[in-house]
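Please check this today:
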Amino acid sequence: KHVGIAVRLTFETLEGEKTSSELTVVNNGTVAIWYDWRRRSQPDSFQGLKRNRMQRFYFNNREGVILPGETKTFTFFFKSLHAGIFREYWEFGTHPTLLGGATLQVNLYAVSLTQDIFREERKLLKHKLAAHEAVTIVESVLQELLSGILTPERAQSPVDAYLTEEDLFHHRNPRVQCWPLHPHTTTTT
């Protein structure tokens, strides 16, 4: 039982939205072909990571007949409530058997994408955090810098360093009283 013809239908949509693809089968022969659909399981190397076996691919998988010269279109739908990559394998069985018994395989591959609804908020938050980080770093560096700057202690000065001559005179001669001279006063000797 090798694969005679394999068809791959690929779907891509946002999570929660539906998309479709079509497969057209033509009977170019002279006899009616009876068909049925059989789902084939494929070994999955990530058995532990598999989610629940929720149905995501939909199509009319009832058996039927394609008359000579008739064209049959099968519409496949895909919808997933969760983002991810999904696949299913189906065999299109026929009677009389076609292709010397080789299987006609339909491979369904789908990608469900998540919509980034918080993109603008995330950008704004990232900008605010970067600004806050910059302010915090500047404050930290400034505090470290200021803690390294010390004002030298005032040098000890002599007691009389800031005294005027008059103050020095009074300090050295506490008993002498001086009367200020007035410029308009004349003295005679």
Summary: DSSP finds two helices and eight strands in the chain. The chain has two domains: 3-113, 117-147.
